[in-house]
Design brief:
Helix 3 links the parallel strand 3 and strand 4. This protein starts with a strand and ends with a helix. By secondary structure, it is mainly α. The chain contains seven helices and five strands, in the order E-H-E-H-E-H-E-H-E-H-H-H. Helices cover 48% and strands 11% of the residues. It is globular. It has a three-stranded parallel sheet, sandwiched between helices. Strands 1-2 form a two-stranded parallel ribbon.
């Protein structure tokens, strides 16, 4: 399921059709609330060339999903790091994307995937309202 509306949507539709994947890939318009989609997914994939600030990755981590993201600045790279809280591939590098996707889907190293998901879930705490309010209280004191 691909959710969102970008400038490449029509090209994406054509590519999906050219590969005969219409029955396997669903395109959905932008959604305000995607938790149900994330919660019921096996993997969260972000292929953006830029993402600001990357809240969708934090939401995926909170849902305990393995994250596969491009190394887009302003969010993904800061949250995921060097494969410690998800899997990173270089923007527009299809071979690297494919390698990481196969690793994620085949669960080649379940222990490593567990550690990555655990690191991401722990990192989510930094972005909670509680954490921000505690920092604000300290500043005001």
């Amino acid at each position: 399921i691909i959710i969102g509306s970008g400038e490449e949507k029509e090209n994406l539709k054509k590519q999906i059709k050219s590969y005969g994947m219409e029955k396997h890939i669903l395109l959905k318009e932008f959604k305000n609330n995607i938790f149900n989609y994330i919660f019921n997914s096996r993997l969260f994939v972000l292929t953006s060339n830029w993402e600001d600030p990357g809240f969708v990755i934090i939401e995926a981590a909170a849902c305990n999903k393995l994250i596969l993201s491009s190394n887009a600045e302003s969010g993904p790279i800061e949250f995921v790091g060097n494969d410690q809280s998800g899997l990173i591939f270089k923007k527009n590098n299809f071979e690297q994307f494919q390698e990481k996707l196969i690793f994620a889907l085949k669960n080649v190293d379940e222990k490593k995937i567990y550690e990555i998901k655990k690191n991401a879930k722990l990192k989510v705490k930094k972005y909670t309202i509680f954490n921000h309010s505690m920092k604000l209280i300290k500043l005001l004191d």
